[in-house]
Amino acid sequence: MDTIKFKQEFTIMCTVTFKAITEKSKGDSTKYNELVDEINRNNFHDASGTKKLRLWIMTFSRATSLLDESCSALVNAILKLDWTGHDNNLVVIYVMFLANLISSHSDYMPKVLGMLVNHFVFRVDKNGTIPLNLENIHGRVHYALKNIFPMVPSGAEELFGILSRGFPHKSESLPAQVTYLKNLLQLLEYIPCLQSQILELIFDRIIELDTEVQGKIEEIEDIEDASTKYELSLHSDQGSLSSCASSVYSKSRFNSPTDSYDGDFDYGSEEDALDIEDSTPSIVALDIGEMIEKLDCMIKLVFDYLKWFFDKGTKNERDDLFDILLTIFEENILYTFKSRYIQFIIFWYVSMDKSYPRQFLSILLNKILSDKEPDIIREAASQYIGSFVGRANYLSSTEIRLCIQALLLWTERYIESYEPTLQLPDPLKHMTFYSIVQSLMYIFCFRWKDLREVTGGIPRWCYEVVGYHKIVNSSFRPLQVCSRNTSDMFQAIVEALQFMNFEKQYSKRFGIIEQGILNISEYFPFDPFRLKTSQPYIEPIYRDWAGMPDKNQVAMEELDFKVIK
């Protein structure tokens, strides 16, 4: 009996719908407007309403061929329905309607994709609480995208544009950033063709936050210590999206939502219906502590995605992802002035395969040693290579020595070319040289144990480091020009290890440096990573400063080593 009644109601609704659309095409919009008003009222929240809504969606699926541009008001009303809050049967029927609609009228694709992506935006209800079914809502949206996207071959660029415009502005709350980014990364799991574009978008947004943090660099360590560690993971089997969002929302410093959710979405005027607006709020003062926590959680989610992809991907897929990350590094990160955190994503992924460190080092060396590169890029690359070799725990002694050998060879040739005409050190003219030498000193401070070997029972320093003596004691006087902290530490370690004999150096640093006109930057990109939520990814592969060589140990072990003179 119920089945018969259901079929009868379905037949009636089909008749009403077809008649309304047909009469509209002939100039009489009365019944069509009544139909639009019926759907716009959205009175489908109880059991009987769900049944009625199911019938309407089935009816509209039957009529999709008629829903051309002239019926956009009706289509907009259908797309504004709260379909994610109903049972699975209705969700399946609704997604089938979306698929039929796009197949019949591809012009609706932007509105359909915009409606779906808009569900990724963080919202709370009128009471300021997160919906308990948030995970189900997002899961159903992913189900819809996964089924609809293959039907629209030209939809990749359209979808990316919508995703890009919907990305929360850096001033938006921590829960807003986490919710959207988490959905964006989960989308990549079934739409991998957007991997390169979306990762570049994500890195760009993280870089925006990273550069904001640098404005108060002297306060950062204290703020990092006071930051919150969040229980956050990308995949629901490790912690549901609802619980993750709730954790972030309840603990975040500013948990006032930018939008609220009451079971219905307001998409604005009909002309703008279902299009995500460009997120460009007015400039506001940003709290450094909140930004650090945003960076921490966002980087953690990116780590989770990269780990998931690496574990499930083929060797070719992992290598392709590495190429994407290297491109992002070369074109974005390397050009970012004194970023503090974003580069650690690259640092981690390089550790995942034995072949990756040499590829990364090769890129840096090529930029450093190429006369065709701008000086600012050569100097940035030298900062990166010094910090990377000093801090990456996964580098082999062979890789460290080959890197040092290449840098020393270049600096020795540079000295041979320019020292004969050098009267006084000229840091402005030879900035690239001093940047490279500073990195060499930094590497030695962290890696001196990797620069020793025993040959034929005789302990000695490896031959690759012979060039240190010539460089340090050259007329360029790097100990007086380079960063005082790095120079002093290098000299102290060298003297403790009796690594070389220093020729007499001027104790006073040059006036041009003392006056602050020039400063050889002491920026090392992989200085300690202190973000609490994402730190577990970095801690096992990171080399902390071990301190000065123990004097007793040096007396027992080091004095037998041959000294380079």
Automatic annotation (TrEMBL):
GO function terms (MF aspect): RNA polymerase I core binding; RNA polymerase I general transcription initiation factor activity; translation initiation factor activity
GO terms under cellular component: nucleus
Superkingdom: Eukaryota
Keywords: Initiation factor, Protein biosynthesis
Gene Ontology terms describing biological process: transcription initiation at RNA polymerase I promoter
Protein biosynthesis listed as a keyword: yes
Annotated transmembrane regions: none
InterPro entries in alphabetical order: RNA_pol_I_trans_ini_fac_RRN3
A UniProt-annotated Pfam family: RRN3
Keyword Transferase in annotation: no
UniProt similarity note: Belongs to the RRN3 family.
Protein name: RNA polymerase I-specific transcription initiation factor RRN3
Provenance organism: Gigaspora rosea
